[in-house]
Design a protein that fits this description.
By secondary structure, the chain is an alpha+beta fold. It has a domain of 94 residues: GTP Cyclohydrolase I, domain 2, CATH 3.30.1130. The strands form 2 sheets. A 4-stranded antiparallel sheet has the order 2-3-5-6, sandwiched between helices. It has a two-stranded antiparallel ribbon with strand order 1-4. The protein is flat and about 50 Å long.
């Protein structure tokens, strides 16, 4: 069943002939669409292998693969808007852990998902790799939240 124009009303960036890339952090770029399968708990994984940000102290670039897993509620994030939003971190100076938590909080504010986790796999700088993980769950998914954070803590890299 195809989406109606009413269902796509909030999706403005997808299909534009000229894409404008913001050079600054801007959560207002994020767009959503209606989840047509709200009766189900299902997982959406977004693999973002080209994330870049800046060290807030040195201004040196940081590179990461960001993985976002979420169980949608009523709204879902539109992927092109997510790409443009993440691109805005390119000139944003923040520590790895801050970037991951900012992304997660912006997506929670945007979608109010049942569950979400954001995982950053940052390339080493100075011989140290940093892999921040943040997650959130509504009241019905607290056990999943605890299981996922425990799994991350028990991971051997």
């Amino acid at each position: 069943m195809a989406r109606t124009s009413e269902e796509l009303a909030g999706v403005t960036l997808l299909g534009e002939s000229k894409t404008v890339y913001s050079s600054t952090y801007n959560p207002d770029l994020l767009e959503t669409f209606i989840n047509k399968h709200q009766e189900l708990d299902y997982l959406v994984t977004l693999n973002c292998p080209e994330f870049t940000s800046l060290c807030p102290k040195t201004g040196q670039p940081d590179f990461a693969k960001i993985i976002i897993n979420y169980i949608p509620n009523e709204r879902m994030v539109e992927s092109k808007s997510l790409k443009l939003y993440l691109f805005g971190f390119r000139n944003h100076g923040d520590f790895h852990e801050d970037c991951i938590n900012i992304i997660m909080k912006d997506l929670i504010h945007l979608m109010e998902p049942r569950y979400i986790e954001v995982y950053g796999i940052f390339t080493p700088r100075g011989g140290i790799s940093i892999y921040p993980f943040a997650n959130y769950a509504d009241a019905n998914h607290q056990e999943l939240k605890a299981q996922r954070i425990a799994a991350q803590m028990n991971k051997s890299y």
